[in-house]
Design brief:
Strand order of the largest sheet of chain B: 6-7-8-3-9-10-15-14
Mean pLDDT of chain A: 89
Radius of gyration of chain B: 22 Å
Number of helices of chain B: 11
Oligomer: heterodimer
Radius of gyration of chain A: 22 Å
Order of helices and strands of chain B: EEEHEEHEHHHEHEHEEHHEHEEHEE
Shape of chain A: globular
Distance between the termini of chain A: 31 Å
Number of strands of chain B: 15
């Protein structure tokens, strides 16, 4: 990556609200992150944390109503995608920015052949004749390691296996040479050996094309092996943002640290897992203050040692305990606690000395997964 | 996980279990072949211990769990429960035995009746089996809810009012209602968020220690299986290809498929140390599995061995348009599950490994 490059995508203070009956819920609040050319940036979090809604709002794909962006900008190529006229946005969507989804079966149309579906996008975005679009489509299938691509173009999605469908989705997404690929849980529905194939394929295509990837996942292992920069989301906000090595070496937010401890690790047999108590909050009932405080082990420990007037008693999951008053009343904002390492937690040492800022991290990982054997199918 | 010594009679002995599903074609639905979903699987589980069953989708691991509970009829083979032939039981005797064997499913949404309250979901089996009724039942239900970490006041609520993790707790409470000795956990934590998954794994471990329950823990997540299991069996295309204690299987895998599976699990480390063995192709169809060793078209060990072997001992095969050289024996002869150079009881079905 060249020094002082411009980010290809620059999301600033994005908030998204949905009308849910009489109430308004905010599944994404004040989200800021950047992606530089050739970078893989991860959005990681559990169900309902807002990671997919963030991705969909970048492409303006959230259904409106009930959803709408209430605040923020999405900078892409010097322009704000959120204020682009719809016809221009259509040129970006699927062209300069492509997206692949978790469930390749529902993302492919069962009544059109693979060839028709890939060629349609190529004709639309590259203004070529149908015959030429089929040639590009055939090459795209070959690039993602599909054997006998000419025959596959004539086939329909139902005859393909899950891994093959995800390859077709990737071929379709990459056929227009996007600058940014948004991959929303691209391997979650796949078996682990197929997941390894698909992730290696994405890494290879990224090396060849220099595209940037926004990787949305709940799998910390996939993040550790693929991302350059990681944004951890919890209950609508980014709570920690760092270069991948820094995040895994020194997680600062108690949620990130808790996640790392709670995952069973291969080859490390522990009698008990250090589980995070409580449940993942529903966007309709986010707690006040720091949204993690009802589940936060650090808050409980600190409250046990603190003076009673600095703490407050809360009820969570039928259990009552004390947490620092500030955690329950004031929402922490991201602050750069170390170079290229942001965290949003009142209880991180030195938090009050730093000003709240929005993260921008230009970093490329040093090590990659070593692969034996061929990757093509 | 548990400290129960592995001695005495196994609680469950599965011998050469086979489950074939007919493939029907044409107007008269003639049977034209069989999907050998489970094709000669044998294992045993001691009381209070956990056998992990891993493999990728379609390998037959869920069918094993369902067949041995007689939710799917077996084609052949036997299941002995406490030494008695479970498949020969009928009527009232079968009903009594079924109390002791339960199952927890992957999807807590579709496995709980949306029209029943939590109290009825957990309490009905007690009533049906004549264990408790009236206030005795209510007390037991409240006790179970509390044990699985839910507020006993939830008895009047319906499944949709709960989160995924809470629903899985309800599913576990229902399985516990009849005080079973054996529970099949079929991908019981796979649909849960990571922070919730660890809570449920801890709960299953605690319950095993308290009540001496044996688990058949079916899952595709290798780290989860390693964490909870005493012994592990790896399935590929309806067969067990490797079986050992969890410690030995994970530290010293003998089957090339197990090696590839383990290497494919992403490391929780931004500086990965393991080399990844990427398998070519996909799991073949169980209707028409490859001859010889079913794994040979994807196997890296047989390719390596073939490159060093005499040409007469090798054969050429075509995989996805690519020509590969493999050992002739691997392509022609089905390997048997046999003891390997590892700790006693560590078996693998492979012609290449020693």
């Amino acid at each position: 990556m060249e020094p002082s490059a411009q980010p290809i995508l620059d999301v600033r203070n994005l908030s998204v609200a949905f009308n849910s009956g009489p109430r308004q819920i905010t599944p994404v609040r004040d989200v800021s992150f950047s992606i530089y050319p050739g970078q893989t940036v991860a959005l990681v979090g559990e169900s309902g944390c807002g990671k997919s809604v963030t991705a969909l709002s970048i492409l303006r794909l959230i259904p409106s109503p009930p959803g709408r962006v209430v605040q923020g900008t999405v900078g892409f190529g010097g322009r704000d995608l959120l204020s682009l006229p719809e016809p221009e946005m259509r040129g970006v969507r699927g062209g300069k920015i492509a997206m692949i989804f978790q469930e390749p079966m529902t993302s492919l149309n069962p009544v059109y052949s693979i060839g028709e579906q890939i060629a349609e996008a190529i004709v639309l975005h590259q203004r070529v004749k149908t015959a030429q679009a089929y040639e590009i489509a055939e090459q795209a299938l070959r690039d993602v390691g599909i054997a006998d691509p000419a025959r596959r173009l004539q086939e329909y999605p139902h005859v393909l296996s899950g891994g093959m469908r995800q390859r077709v989705m990737i071929a379709m997404a990459l056929s227009c040479r996007p600058q940014l690929l948004i991959a929303d849980e691209p391997t979650t529905a796949l078996d682990v050996t197929i997941q390894a194939q698909i992730l290696e394929l994405l890494r290879k295509l990224q090396r060849e094309t220099g595209m940037a990837i926004l990787l949305i996942t709940h799998d910390l292992g996939v993040v550790a092996e693929n991302a350059d920069v990681v944004n951890v989301m919890y209950a609508s906000r980014i709570v920690e943002s760092a270069a991948v090595e820094d995040l895994f070496d020194r997680p600062m937010h108690p949620y990130t640290a808790g996640l790392f401890r709670s995952v069973p690790k291969l080859g490390a047999r522990a009698e008990r897992l250090a589980a995070i108590p409580g449940t993942v909050p529903n966007p309709a009932q986010f707690p006040g203050g720091c949204k993690f405080h009802p589940r936060c082990a650090r808050a409980r420990e600190l409250a046990a040692r603190a003076a009673a007037e600095a703490t407050t008693e809360i009820m969570s999951d039928g259990e009552s305990f004390r947490v620092p008053r500030r955690c329950a009343s004031e929402e922490p904002l991201l602050r750069e606690m170390e170079p290229r390492h942001w965290a949003a937690c009142h209880q991180v040492a030195g938090y009050d000395e730093k000003p709240p800022t929005e993260p921008r991290i230009e970093h490329k990982r040093a090590s990659v997964v070593q692969v034996d054997g061929e990757v093509t199918a | 996980m548990s400290q129960v010594p592995a001695n005495g009679r196994p609680l469950l002995e599965v011998d050469d279990l086979r489950t074939y599903f007919p493939v029907r074609r044409g107007v008269f639905l003639r049977t034209v072949g069989h999907v050998k979903a489970v094709d000669g699987v044998s294992f045993s589980i001691q009381p209070g211990r956990t056998l992990g069953l891993v493999g990728e989708s379609g390998c037959g691991k869920s069918t094993v769990g369902r067949t041995l509970l007689r939710l799917i009829p077996a084609t052949s083979g036997s299941v002995r429960y406490k030494g008695e032939d479970f498949f020969s039981y009928r009527g009232e005797e079968l009903r009594k035995l079924r109390r002791q064997m339960q199952i927890v499913f992957q999807d807590p949404v579709s496995s709980l009746n949306p029209r029943m309250t939590v109290g009825n979901i957990i309490g009905e089996p007690m009533q049906v089996h004549g264990l408790a009724s009236g206030s005795g039942r209510d007390e037991m239900v409240a006790g179970l809810l509390e044990r699985v970490g839910l507020d006993p006041a939830y008895v009047t609520r319906y499944p949709h009012e709960f989160s995924g993790g809470q629903r899985q707790r309800i599913g576990i409470a229902r399985a516990l209602a009849l005080n079973p000795n054996f529970i099949v956990c079929d991908e019981a934590v796979s649909a849960l968020d990571v922070s919730i998954q660890s809570q449920i794994l801890n709960l299953l471990g605690d319950l095993q220690k308290e009540r001496g329950i044996a688990y058949l823990f079916i899952a595709h997540n290798l780290a989860v299986v390693e964490h909870i299991s005493d012994d592990v069996a790896v399935m590929y295309l309806g067969r067990i290809v490797e079986q050992a204690s969890a410690r030995d299987l994970y530290s010293n895998p003998k089957h090339p498929y197990t090696m590839a599976l383990l290497s494919a699990v992403p490391e929780l480390n931004p500086r990965p140390r393991r080399r990844r063995i990427v398998l070519p192709g996909e799991v073949p169809s169980a209707v028409n599995p490859p001859g010889g060793c079913p794994f040979h078209p994807r196997c890296h060990l047989t390719r390596q061995a073939a490159s060093d072997a005499d040409a007469t001992e090798t054969a050429e095969i075509t995989v996805g348009g690519t020509k590969l050289r493999v050992l002739r024996r691997c392509a022609e002869e089905m390997p048997v599950l046999e003891q390997k150079q590892a700790e006693p009881g560590h078996c693998a079905a492979c012609w290449v490994t020693k």
